[in-house]
Amino acid sequence: MTETPPRRPVARMHVESRECSPQLLERLIGATYFPERLLGPAIVNTVCREGGHLLYVTAPPMLDADRQVDYYLGLLSGGGRAAEDSGDLAGEGSASRPGEDCGGRPGEGSRDRPGGPSDARERIRIVTLDDASSRWLSEKVLDPAGAEAASVRDALREFATDRRRAGADVRLSYFEPSRPLELLARDLGVPGTQPSSAHIPLGTKHASRRLFAAAGVPVPAGGELCHGPAELAAAVADLVRAGRRKVVLKLDSTAYGGGLGNALLELDDSLLSVTDDSLEKLVWDALPHASLVDGRITWDDFVALMKESGAIAEEMIEGAPLHSPSFQGRLTDAGDAVAVSTHDQVLGTGGQSYTGCSFPARDDYRQAVVDCGLRVGKALLDLGVDAGDYGVDFLAVRSGSAWRLLGCEVNLRATATKHPFTMAAGLLGTDPTPDGRFVVDGTEYVYEASDGIMDRRYEGLRPAQLIDAVTASPLGFDPARGTGVVLHLMSPVTRYGKFGALCVGRDRAEAAGLMSRLRELVGGLQPERTPAPPD
After folding, report:
1. Of 112, 215, 184, 181, which Cα lies nearest the Cα of 414?
2. CB atoms within 10 A of CB 115
């Protein structure tokens, strides 16, 4: 019998730079802390599940960093909830202290996992830069004039060299592709985790419509790329002639994610009866009154951005019910497109901006979402995209007794659903079933997640307070039952009153109840200090 060769140890370096428009980053509340989002999943998966080494870069420094690290290390051993509720999880009548043992429960047998590494904390290194500006994290790390940046690069290089010598599979993880991060990975002699930045133009709104067409996925009615108000007015007029009076105007730029480059235009019913050339003039007059999803830009700003990147006009899809499912896929080194997960997105601002998600997407259309997502992946492979994460957003509209899917957007990067999904998979110790669900020992698990749990009452709280409150309550994650609340993106709470959470339940009602009770719990906490004024 041929022996299976030992699996290589893993080592991961994370520079989770969110590389959208710097101006947009300035307007997204707490966005400078976005690179923290994958810290918890990285600790649970790389360190606890895989027994590997982790180097994680943040800027600015995390608040209560040691407490956050120990919190994540304790999740699988019962450190994520009150000790009196989890005293039997360590096997000796008391829970392990956070950081001492990575433990594991409901799905621990479904993945190879080193048994209880007591040195887990020593295999984690957090490297920080004292820079709270809205610059991309990659710019901060690669700043040629910064002494701190040089120190971070030295730490990355030393980590990569040491782990390679130890025989580890070393990779540089980043949220979305960029030329600077690719050069950094090449300098470190390690592969990156995302598609080549040369393919970024394939993720624009107009290119997405072409990808959907190539994949045979229907899209909302819409026009060609426009670079000025006159062209845009003509495109909208064509939609009005086809009977549409509600339109979404979308900047054709990958720099404006989450729907923040959109504007909503609702035209008067009387325009539907205009048949002559005056219609374009009437639309032209109406355009400046479009409702911009990003309230901090004006119509003049939108026009200036349109001249740079272009914009498209699409019919606004309405209906009751109307859902926004999303597909997450990956292009493998073997040249395949594989399904990773599906979610139903929670959208705000007129259904245009992402605020959270629930897993998995509804049974009614989940398989259709997977099928269409894989077809888009095949179209990407045909265009030469050969590695990395990709995401596909859809609209699901009720059509009689069935659902009709329409392609909305393609993202050639990780998406905001990645960190809750990888955290849930790591905590449960399992991968999704072929039909896209988490099932452990016959029990199904679902979750809700949000990066935007925000309230002025939360301002001035510390991450350590959030951790203490959740772990001392019945809400904290219980590895024996596989359910509960897991916090993330905690640093923004002090200044902005904002944090994130994953709520895992055995049905949607339980997951939603956990999210609601978490908001109530945090709303009753008292700040330790007066918060600094917003930027």
Report:
1. 181
2. 10
CB 28 within 8 A of CB 456: no
**Two structure tokens written together for 155:** 């730490």
Whether residue 97 is predicted with pLDDT greater than 90 in this model: the reply is no
Does a cis peptide bond (omega within 30 degrees of 0) precede residue 321?
yes
Cα gap 202→136, rounded to integer Å: 21
The answer to whether 405 touches 375, Cβ cutoff 8 Å, is no
Q: Give the separation between CA 458 and CA 460, rounded to whole angstroms.
A: 6
Distances from the Cα of 128 to the Cα of 14, 132, 264, 473, angstroms: 12, 11, 40, 31
Is the pLDDT assigned to residue 203 strictly greater than 60? yes
Q: Any idea which residue has 């994130």 for tokens?
A: 500
- Residue 206, phi then psi, degrees to nearest 5: -70, -45
Considering only the C-alpha atoms of the chain, give the largest distance between any 2 of them, rounded to a whole number of Å. 82
Using an 8 Å Cβ cutoff, are 31 and 451 in contact?
no
Residue 416: pLDDT above 60?
A: yes
Q: What is the pLDDT of residues 114-130, one digit of tens each?
A: 444 458 999 999 999 99
Pick 250 or 534 by higher pLDDT: 250
Give exposure, 299-309, as e/b (b: 16+ Cβ within 10 Å): eeebbebbeeb
- Taking all residues of the chain, what is their mean pLDDT, rounded to a whole number? 88
What contacts 183, CB < 8 A, 6 or more positions away?
Answer: none
Q: Give the sign of the dihedral formed by CA 384, CA 387, CA 388, CA 392.
A: positive
Interval 437-496: pLDDT, tens: 999 999 999 999 999 999 999 999 999 999 999 999 999 999 999 999 999 999 999 999
- Quote the CA–CA distance of 107 and 480 in Å, as a whole number: 10
